[in-house]
Amino acid sequence: MSRSTKSAASSKIDIRGVAARARVSIATVSRTINHVPTVDPALAKRVWKAVKELNYFPNTQARALVSGRSRLFGLIVSEITNPFFPELIQQFEAIAVQHGYEILLGSTSYDAAKTEQCVRRMLERKVDGVAVMTFGIEELLLNRFEEGDIPTVFIDLGPSTPHSRTISVDYQQGITEAIQHLAALGHRDIAFLSGPLRMHSAQARSDAFARAMQQAGLVTRPEWMLEGTHTLDGGRDAMQRMLKTRRWPTAIVCSNDVTAIGVQHALFDARLRVPEDFSLVGFDDIHLAEYTIPPLTTVRMASEDLAHAAIGTLLEMLGTAEAAAGTPVPTHLIVRQTTGSPRTNATAARATGRKSPVKH
Amino acid sequence: MSRSTKSAASSKIDIRGVAARARVSIATVSRTINHVPTVDPALAKRVWKAVKELNYFPNTQARALVSGRSRLFGLIVSEITNPFFPELIQQFEAIAVQHGYEILLGSTSYDAAKTEQCVRRMLERKVDGVAVMTFGIEELLLNRFEEGDIPTVFIDLGPSTPHSRTISVDYQQGITEAIQHLAALGHRDIAFLSGPLRMHSAQARSDAFARAMQQAGLVTRPEWMLEGTHTLDGGRDAMQRMLKTRRWPTAIVCSNDVTAIGVQHALFDARLRVPEDFSLVGFDDIHLAEYTIPPLTTVRMASEDLAHAAIGTLLEMLGTAEAAAGTPVPTHLIVRQTTGSPRTNATAARATGRKSPVKH
DNA sequence: GACGGTGCAGAAAACGTTTACGGAGAAGCC
DNA sequence: GGCTTCTCCGTAAACGTTTTCTGCACCGTC
Predict the structure, then answer these.
(1) Dihedral sign from CA coordinates of B41, B45, B50, B56
(2) For residue A192, which phi and psi values (nearest 5 degrees)?
(3) Residues around strand D, C-beta < 7 Å
(4) Which of A140, A147, A272 to mutate to test the interface with B (most CBs of B within 10 A)?
(5) Which of A262, A346, B30, B80 would staple A232 via disulfide (CB 3.0–4.6 Å)?
(6) Domains of chain A as residue ranges with CATH
């Protein structure tokens, strides 16, 4: 209220206004605010004073138009309502801001038209680079972004071209830990509930599961390798289907945490108990995993690591940063309360729905 | 791959290129793609043909620079990791896109510096309007956005000025339903766990609770009016504090769903059961509410309605749409499984931690 | 047949920056 | 002291659009 003393007619403050007030040219103003070192300290001081007094800030559009850089990173994810992605977005944004970039968000919702629109928006707004964590977008990106010469990083496992890189994740480590943990508890019949297998990261988790089972000397039964959708509903539906079959596993490993929560719900509805009747392992370790009832044992993949690697790679491709070591993002098991020893006769639970005391 | 036949050197297609190929002036190209009706159909056809062939799309920045409209709406929320907001964001974006706008997202994380930065970003990118659902931002917005002449809509209960409007929500309806539901089940001792009271919407929910209690002839005890943070951790912590006090309520109404999930977790940790030992009501009806164990009784406030009203108001302020009826966004109770009759002696549960059969 | 009106395309001026370029002055060298 | 070299500022040309304004052609009217 008392602040806008002389900047009352301030709706139109541009670089010219600042130049006039500081009694320098607009070029000097530009150089000053862009921290070009060759400007005389005395003039710079006058410029900053004028900037402050007039409450000036540069017009991003004009700046982008002439410099060719928008200082914008695109981030394309599958679905913003899956809690893992907001956590990733938050990290991604925080790190981007540290490097002077902002983010333009796009979610595909697993829909071809929306995906197409996403890519188009990114091109129209002239993003300087784009990070992708979804599927079904590869050919679009390669056709269009390469033409536009836009660096692309896939999280994870995308095509590798001169314009695109991949952040790899060490799925094997965490999933092997999970299988070993279950095996140590006495489980032998373990099912895997994957995400949509068209999605590279879902396929990779599925493969890691199969390998870990083999290493542990356990057999994977095909009917216990289910394809889900990485959603709450998908987890619930898949579990309900499995409950209709004759033979049940004693443990279920899920490709992400929301799928596991969906499974928990299906079991609750069927009056089955976790971990007494079924042990359950998730993947991602979203913040919510700590708050499910009971708290979810899960494989942690730090969204911060992902975001860090993605932006580092992007900056490197833009020539702004040195090549960072391309070590895969690590994963590891977090044991909470959805895993326990299997019942000696698992199918007994089916009819009774009895409770056993909550472990602690 | 086969598509880019002659657009190989296509990285630099601008309006001039299209004009040359269609043998018209750039003004005609501009008019055509902006659907100005005074262009000759024959020429328009040639232009569209050239656009297709060259895979042309306009440069958003140049367009915004000269036209003064960025076709961008800002959306400022508290915290993207609270699942309610992604749902809102998704709806908001979908509706914005329908009207030819995109959204620029900002989250304040309840932090003054981040809030300041948010506002600045919105101004720099020259958003055409901004919708706000957080707190502590009002004076910033009024000082800065009014200068920039940017329409602002608060969801809900913000200051009312020539430049800003408010989307109101009928909190009373849903919360009254909740209290009546609990009273009918036999509850008299009902606590309220609010969000941060600096936030208007949190304060409004708290007020609605007090009024509903009074209408139902129940007394609200001050020590049962707790202030939370609208987060998982906040809900858990508040409940843990309450469990240390001497006298417990039999039911708890929470100001949002994640708070309720936090409460559920605290009760689980303390070996107390929902709804046997405590009935629990949330607010928002996020998708996840259906998946908690047991599924959460909650007051539904449709994020779609909020988004719809916010964008409608924004368009109206921009003169693009007619004044829509300003009816408050409705709320209503969704009964699931976290509410039931209170035990005759609630404190009995404290020591035993016994189970009773799950209701259905 | 001259004249005013109308319809529609093109020329050119913005929009607010960055940056290549030229030039003025100071400083260094012989 | 004159020459070159170096600093650092200002002028002006971009960047890719939209939009105003001008002008041409065509039409109907008297």
Answers:
(1) positive
(2) -125, 130
(3) A 24-28, 31, 38-40, 43, 62, 65-66; B 12, 14-16, 26-27, 29-31, 33-34, 56, 58-59, 62-63, 65-67
(4) A147
(5) A262
(6) 13-58 (1.10.260.40), 69-167+305-329 (3.40.50.2300), 171-296+336-351 (3.40.50.2300)
